C-alpha cells in the first residue's frame, strides 16, 4: 500500500483523497484550516493533518511518502514542488499556471523522482488526447483544444456557476495565452479568438484562455501551422467578462472580482464537462480531420457522488499516479502529459471516467 499526501482539501483535493483511498492508497490530506478539515465527511482511513503551506512546507512531512499531489491554488505550486524535491518524493499537480510549471521543470532537472505537473483536465487529459490523435497523421496541420466546465442548468446572465477554483478561473481569463500561429510560438490575448462550435447538438462559444496547452507548444513548435486552446462557455459569457475585466479594469484588481464572484455566483453539483479535441492533417496524401469529443456529467463513482469537474480533474491526476506506480510512464525528471499513452490512461480504473460519453 503506497503512502501519498494530498495538499489541499477543497472540492478537488478531497475528491482526490477519497478516490485514492478507495483505490488502495494510504492517504494523508493536508489543509491550513483545522476546523474545515475536521468537518469533512471522509472515510476513516484518510489521515488529516493541518499545515499552512503559505507559510512554508516542511519536507519532513513527506518522509516515507511515495508521492505528493498538489490541489492547492497555483501560487503555492512552487512551495510544494520544492518540498517534494528536498524530500525525494514524486510530485504531481493540477496547475494551469505557466510560470509555476517552468519552476517545476527547473526543479526536475537531474531528479531521481518524477515531477509531473498539469495532470488535470486541461492541461492534462486533452493534452494526452491531442498528442495521440496527432500520431494518426503523416503530417499535422492544426491542433485545436476546446474545454468547458459548465452548469447543466444555467440560471444567470453569465451562464455560469462556480465549480472549481475562482482564483484559477480569473487567472486564466487574464494572463497571456500560449499558441502556435502560422507555425511559430506566440502569445495571444485572453478572451480573444471568439468562435462558436457544437458538441452533442449544443452550441457553445469558445475564446482564448491561459494555461490549457501545457507543454504542447514546445512539443509541436515547427511541426504544425496552428495550435491553440480555448475555453467553452454558453453564448454571451465572453462579452460580459470583457466588460468586467477590460472596461471596468477589474483585471487590475483581481481580489475584488474574486470577492464578487464568490459572493454572487453560487456553486452547483449539477455540472458537466464538455471537451473537443480536433486535429487536422494529411494521411495517405489526403486532408483528414479527427475529433475526440466528450460530454461528461456528474454521477456516482468509486464510493460517492462526484461532480463532473471532480470526475475529470481528480480522476485524471489519480490515473497518472496509478500509471506512475505501475511503471507505465517515466519515473524520473520532468514528465510531460504527452509522455502518457492514451490507451493506458483510458484503460486505467480512474481514467475510465473519460470513456463514458453522454
Topology:
Blueprint: E1 3-7, H1 11-22, E2 26-31, H2 34-39, E3 47-50, E4 67-70, H3 77-87, E5 90-93, H4 98-108, E6 114-116, H5 125-134, E7 139-151, H6 166-174, E8 177-181, E9 184-188, E10 195-199, E11 202-208, H7 216-220, E12 226-233, H8 237-247, H9 254-264, E13 271-283, E14 286-297, E15 299-300, E16 305-306, H10 308-325, E17 333-334, H11 342-347
Helix pairs in contact: 1-10, 3-4, 6-9
Radius of gyration: 19 Å
Biggest sheet character: 8 strands, mixed
Order of helices and strands: EHEHEEHEHEHEHEEEEHEHHEEEEHEH
Mean pLDDT: 94
Describe this structure in words.
With 358 residues, this protein is α/β, with parallel strands linked by helices. It has helices at 11-22, 34-39, 77-87, 98-108, 125-134, 166-174, 216-220, 237-247, 254-264, 308-325, 342-347, and strands at 3-7, 26-31, 47-50, 67-70, 90-93, 114-116, 139-151, 177-181, 184-188, 195-199, 202-208, 226-233, 271-283, 286-297, 299-300, 305-306, 333-334. Strands 7, 8, 9, 10, 11, 12, 13 and 14 form an 8-stranded mixed sheet that branches. A 7-stranded parallel sheet has the order 3-2-1-4-5-6-17, with helices on both faces. β13 (271-283) and β14 form a beta hairpin. The longest helix is centred in the C-terminal third of the chain and has 18 residues, at 308-325.
